[in-house]
Amino acid sequence: MLFSGAKIALLCDDLILIYQRDDKPNIPWPGLWDLPGGGREDDETPLQTAVRETWEEFGLTLDPAWVVWTRVYPGQGMQGLDTWFFVAEVPPGTFDTVVFGDEGQRWQLCTVEAFLARTDAIDRLQARLREYLAD
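Given the sequence above, the corresponding structure tokens read:
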């Protein structure tokens, strides 16, 4: 299966975990608010990519059973490859154990509504989250 990467929205009640990307001109979407996830490594599946990236970025171990929504976006990734988007509903207390990694400026919890209203977030991820909410 060819794909470039995967992102995941981690929800607990009405809260979502987000982070502000580094403000480096050589990366995509510098300084914007983002969701956990990133590029595929080796022979990972899309979900394995999202789980690994969440561990690397936030020190959180995700149970695949928490994933409640999955969607592939054909041709929207690097070099025209597919990207994947997941939504997971995590149990209360999960965000209490965040250990922020070395990518990004800072992280925060906010309401889903507040994330969707941000003008400084990655708009395609906001659109994907809206698709989930509409389903």
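The two ends are 26 Å apart (CA to CA). Try to locate this feature in the token string yourself.
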